[in-house]
Amino acid sequence: MASIDSFGAKAQLEVGDQTYDIYRLDKVEGADKLPYSLKILLENLLRTEDGSNITADDIRALAGWEAKAEPSKEIQFSPARVIMQDFTGVPAVVDLATMREAVRDLNGDPAKINPLSPAELVIDHSVIADVFGTPDSFERNVEIEYERNKERYQFLRWGQSAFADFKVVPPGTGIVHQVNIEHLARVVFERDGVAYPDTCVGTDSHTTMVNGLGVVGWGVGGIEAEAAMLGQPVSMLIPRVVGFKLHGELPEGTTATDLVLTITEMLRRHGVVGKFVEFYGPGVAAVPLANRATIGNMSPEYGSTIAVFPIDDETVRYLRMTGRPEQQVALVEAYARTQGLWHDASTEPEYSETIELDLSTVVPSIAGPKRPQDRVSLTDAKSAFRGVLGDYVDAEKVEPKGYDEASAESFPASDSPAYHGDNGAAAPADYASAAAGANGRPSSPTRIKLSDGTECEVDHGAVVIAAITSCTNTSNPSVMIGAALLAKKAVEKGLNRKPWVKTTLAPGSKVVMDYYERAGLTPYLDKLGFNLVGYGCTTCIGNSGPLITEVSQAVNDSDLAVVSVLSGNRNFEGRINPDVKMNYLASPPLVVAYALAGSMDLDLYNEPLGKDTDGNDVFLKDIWPSAQEIEEVVDSAIASEMFTRDYADVFAGDERWQQMDTPEGNVFAWDDASTYVRKPPYFEGMPATPEPVSDIAGARVLAKLGDSVTTDHISPAGSIKKDSPAGAYLLEHGVEARDFNSYGSRRGNHEVMIRGTFANIRLRNQLAPGTEGGFTRDFTNGGEVSSIYDASVNYAEAGTPLVILSGKEYGSGSSRDWAAKGTALLGVKAVLAESYERIHRSNLIGMGVLPLQYPEGQNAESLGLTGEETFSITGVEELNDGTTPREVTVRADDKEFRAVVRIDTPGEADYFRHGGIMQYVLRSLLA
C-alpha cells in the first residue's frame, strides 16, 4: 500500500461492526467531476502513491483530466487481481516456471517469481463438444477432456501448489467470466484492512464482462498478466471516455443479445478503440445486471478497453442473489456511496464524447457471417445471407433464378448493414455475381443418408451447428430461460430439430442447469438435442467438435457453404469449425429456432419452421415466449442458495481432479517427452543487462495481409490439420491425429505454437496469391511457395530478419499472447499496419516486436509495396538514448517513407529496450 499520502486522503469507513481504511476521493480537487471509471483509476493512484512510480503530480493530472484532449499523460495502474482461463493461463504459468529457472541460473532466488496480487485461473476452454444429443454427453465429454489434457492439468495443479496466491477452478465448473461475476468478483476488495475498488486484468479479452458489475477490468496478453502478477503496474495513458446514454426500455420480443449487437454496431461505427466506454442516464436502471454483463462482455468486439456500468441498486441486488455474504454486500453499497461511485441518473459527468440509444428502438438481430459488428436485422436475415452467399460459393455451381422485381427488392441496399462483402467491403457490383449470391441456389441439393437411416438434403446455408454457448449469453437467465421456453413450446407443437443440425448446450455455470431442473425445462431442450455437453466455451472458442459424419462428408464433397448459429461473441473466419464457412451470432432462443429451421435461407418472420401434429404450419411467433412468461419462470426458479451451494467448494474439483498425480517442488521438472508443456526459449542466453536496440536491415516480408486480420488468423485456437507443420510435428512425436486436440490446448508447447502461427485455414497471404492458409513465398528459395513456418526456418538460417505488412485493425479479437509470441519466434522484427487493436499492439512490444504504422492515409497499395521488396528500418536506435522516436525511416528497395512508431508510453519503451516485458520484469526482480 501507499507509503505517501500527499492529499490526506486516508480515512476510515465503518460498515456494521467492521472498520476499514479507505482513500477518500473527495480529498482531491476535481475528483467529483470525473466519470465513474476515472474515479476508480484515481483511487488506485491515491492508494499506491510512492513518490516515484506514482506521484502527487500524477494524481493531480488525473483529477484535472481534460475530457476533449488527446491522451498524453501516462499513469501506472495496479490491478487488485489477475484472472485467467486455461488456454492463456497455461502458457502464463509455463512462463513463470521458466522465469524461476532463469532466476536460479542467474544466481537469484526462484521464490521471487511468485504472484504478489491474487491470481485465479478457471479451466473452461478445454472441453470439446465431441459427443452431443445424448443423456450422457456431459459425462463422456468430461472424460475425454481429462484424457486429452492430463499433462496440462497436472501442470496447473503443480502451479497451484508451487505459487502462493494462485488458485485454480477445476474443469466442469463454468466459464471464466461467468464464474468471475457470480463468485470471484468482489466489487469492493478488502486486503490487510483496506477497502478499495475491485479491479482486474485478465488473460482473455472478454474479461470486460465484469464491467457489468461496476468492476474496472480488461483483457491483456498473458505476458502483461504475468507482469501484473509479479507486482508490475500496467502502464497506460489516461484514456478518453465515451459516455453512452441509455433511456427507454427494450420492447417485447427483443433480448439482451439484440441490444448488445446493436451497441456493438453503433460503437464500432463511432470508433472507440483504446477508449473507455461508460453507460449512464435514466435507462441504466432498466438494464438488468445480466444484460449489463452481456454488454460489457462484447467490449472487444467494438474495440473499447472497457464498457462499464456504475454501481447502483441493481448491482447490490445481483450480489445478494448470487449469495455474496451480507457484510460484503453492505460494504459495496457503503463504499460506493461514500466515494461518489453510486450511480445518480440525474447528474451527467463530463465525457470526451457521447452517444445515445433509445432502448425501445432495438429490434431482433443476428450478426455475421464473419464479424461480430456486422449486425443484420432478423427481418433481413434471409436476404442478407443471399446477398453474401456469392462470396463463399463458386459461381459456376450456383444457378441464378433470374431477375424480377421481388428478388431485386430482397437484395439489401448498399447502405444497409446487411450489405457487405470481404472485410466489410461492398458485395459484388456486377449483376451476374450479385444475382448468383443474392438469389442463387445450388443446381441440385446434396442428398445424404444419416447413420440412423434418416434421409435428407443439405444445401448452401444449411445450419449444421446450433450452439447455446459462450460467456456472452449463458450468464443471462432471461435469454437462457427464453431458449428453454421456446423449446418447450416447439416440442408441444410437435417440432424437432432438423436431422443435419449438431445441437449443443454449454452453460456458463452449474446454476443454469439447476434452474432448468427446478423449472422443469430440461426435458424439452433434451428432446431437441440440446443436451448438456459441458460447462465451457466449446463452440465459441472453436471447440465445436466434428460435424455429423455424413454431413461433413457432403459439405466437403459438394463444397457447400454451410452455417453455424451460436449464442457467442466471436464468429471470425475459420474459428468455429473447419467445415463451416459462414457463422452467425444470435440469442439462445434464436439458436433453438434456427435448429428447428435448419437453414439460414429462411425468413423466420414469414416462413414456417415446420408443421404441428395436426399438419398446420408453425411460425416463430407461435412459439416465441413473452417477456412476462420468462420473468415468471426466472422469479420462481432462481434462488440464491443455488449459487452458495454450487460455489461452496469451487476450488476442490471432482474426484478426477483430486486424485490426479501432481508434481512437486518449487521448480518444475520438465518432461522432454511432453507434447503439451515444454520449456520455452525466451531466456536462453539472456545477459543480465540488455543489449542495445538496433536498426533493421535486409529484412524480407513473411506475409502481406489485408484488413481485419484477427488474432485468430495469426494464432488459431481450433483444430490442427494433419498436413500442417504443427500436425507433422505431433506425428513425428508419436501423437496420432485423433489425439491432436486443438492449438489452444497446446499453448504450453512453443514448438506446436510456432508452427501454428499464421496457420489459420482462412488466412489469405497476398504474397502467395491463390493460396489459403499458412503459406508464403520463400525468397531464400527463389520465391517458391512454402509453409510460413518452413520459410521462417530458412530465413533464420540465412540470418534474414522478417517483417509483416497488414491493413486496418491488425490483431483484433482475442487477447491472444501467442499471436505475438509466435510472431516473435518466427523471426519477425517489425509489423507495419494501417492500425492496430490495443491488446495485440501491446503484446507485440511485450515480445520485442516493433509495431509501426503507415503515414496517415497511406497503406501498402498506395505506397506501391508488393511484399517482394527488401526492407530496412532506420531510426530505431534512438531508443538507446532513452527517448522514443515518433517516426522511423522505412526503405523498401527504391521506395522510402516515414512510419509512425506505435510505442505509446515510456513503460512500453522500457519493455522494448529489454527485448520484451518478461526480460524486463526478470531483470527488475534480480536488481
UniProtKB/TrEMBL annotation:
Region (Disordered): 401-425
Annotated EC: 4.2.1.3
Keywords for the protein's UniProt record, in alphabetical order: Iron, Iron-sulfur, Lyase, Metal-binding
GO MF annotations in UniProt: aconitate hydratase activity
Family matches, as SUPFAM superfamilies: Aconitase iron-sulfur domain (SSF53732), LeuD/IlvD-like (SSF52016)
Enzyme's top EC category: lyase
Annotated Aconitase/3-isopropylmalate dehydratase large subunit alpha/beta/alpha domain residues: 65-598
NADP keyword on record: no
InterPro entries: AcnA_IRP_Swivel, Acnase/IPM_dHydase_lsu_aba_1/3, Acoase/IPM_deHydtase_lsu_aba, Aconitase/3IPM_dehydase_swvl, Aconitase/IRP2, Aconitase_4Fe-4S_BS, Aconitase_4Fe-4S_dom, AconitaseA/IPMdHydase_ssu_swvl
UniProt cross-references to Pfam families, sorted A to Z: Aconitase, Aconitase_C
UniProt keyword Metal-binding, yes or no: yes
Cofactor: [4Fe-4S] cluster
Domain Aconitase A/isopropylmalate dehydratase small subunit swivel: 729-856
Classification via PANTHER family: ACONITASE/IRON-RESPONSIVE ELEMENT FAMILY MEMBER
Family membership: Belongs to the aconitase/IPM isomerase family.
Name the record gives this protein: Aconitate hydratase
